From TrEMBL:
Residues 1-135, 146-281 form the UspA domain. The lineage of its organism: Archaea, Methanobacteriati, Methanobacteriota, Stenosarchaea group, Halobacteria. InterPro entries: Rossmann-like_a/b/a_fold, Universal_stress_UspA, UspA. This is Nucleotide-binding universal stress protein, UspA family. CDD domains: USP-like (cd00293). Belongs to the universal stress protein A family. Pfam families: Usp (PF00582). Gene3D superfamilies: HUPs (3.40.50.620). It comes from the Archaea.
Length: 281
């Protein structure tokens, strides 16, 4: 499924966790690992031992050594920035046929680095390939045994379910598919009850569609569930309660409907989940 994985790094705690995730993923799929550091224009000096250039090289070296110790083949590169950092990441992705990017969501405090939210968000929005994100408190399981994918029946959710199903089959994992009914959209009363029932009926249809989708070829262990509450909270809670190792989410939902597949909710899940989140579109 993954043949070439890209790890942008700056040596921060978040990127160190990302390195663990990238190495584990590469090891599971016997994939090549590409480790890069993007230099700012003011980071090209190598006049002293504490220079940013040297720091970047050391960050890359640390990730490469981690890969080597796990028997993962790694390619390294320190790139001088000629355009925005996320564009450099995406250019490298295109030129080297990368099929997954793994990156942290925060970088070194006070520095405008690639692991800060703005660059991570831009990468997520524009990347043509799946992006796995982690943060400082993410727990990396070396073997993915269970995967969660939320759905709302939209085209974007269809893509996420397809990717999650393929991933689950590749690593022999159990797939969990959930639909979230957002209770905050309604108030008390009989009309509310009817609306909730209607939303749950839509959810059942969305889950049936997802189940048919992932079971269209060979059998895949799959669990489905409808949950009620704020979407990002329920997604994270479900992942915690069911010991999920990875969450797969779409970055857009149905137009005109404030659903959990919209960027704001995906972003909240990325920041709050204690497992890696793979975003697809």
């Amino acid at each position: 499924m993954f043949q070439r994985i890209l790890l942008p790094t700056d040596g921060s705690e978040a990127s160190s966790i990302a390195a663990e995730a990238a190495v584990s993923l590469a090891d599971q799929f016997d994939a090549e690992l590409h480790v890069i550091h993007v230099l700012e224009h003011d980071e090209t000096s190598t006049d002293n031992v504490d220079s940013p250039t040297r720091y970047g090289e050391e960050a890359v070296q640390a990730a490469v050594e981690l890969a080597t110790s796990s028997g993962v083949e790694a390619t390294r590169a320190v790139i001088e920035k000629r355009k925005s950092i996320h564009q450099e990441i995406l250019t490298y992705t295109d030129e080297h046929s990368i099929d997954c990017i793994v990156m942290g969501t925060r970088g070194r405090s006070g520095l405008n680095r690639l692991l800060l939210g703005s660059v991570a968000e831009q990468t997520l929005r524009e990347s043509p390939v799946p992006v796995m994100t982690v943060h400082e408190e993410t727990v990396i399981d070396p073997d993915i045994g269970s995967i969660l994918v939320p759905t709302d029946g939209s085209e974007c959710a269809h893509t996420a379910v397809d990717h999650a199903g393929e991933l689950a089959r590749s690593v022999d994992a159990t797939l969990h598919v959930i639909y979230v009914v957002e209770t905050g959209q309604v108030i008390n009363g009989n009309r509310v009850r009817k609306l909730r029932e209607a939303l749950e009926e839509i959810g059942e249809k969305a889950l049936d569609l997802a189940l048919d989708q992932v079971q269209s070829s060979t059998y895949l262990p799959t669990e489905t569930s409808i949950v009620n509450g704020p979407p990002y909270i329920e997604i994270v809670r479900y992942a915690e309660e069911h010991d999920v190792d990875c969450i797969v989410m779409g970055t857009h939902g149905r137009k005109g409907i404030r659903r959990f597949l919209l960027g704001s909710v995906t972003e909240r899940v990325i920041r709050r989940a204690d497992v890696p989140v793979i975003s697809v579109k």
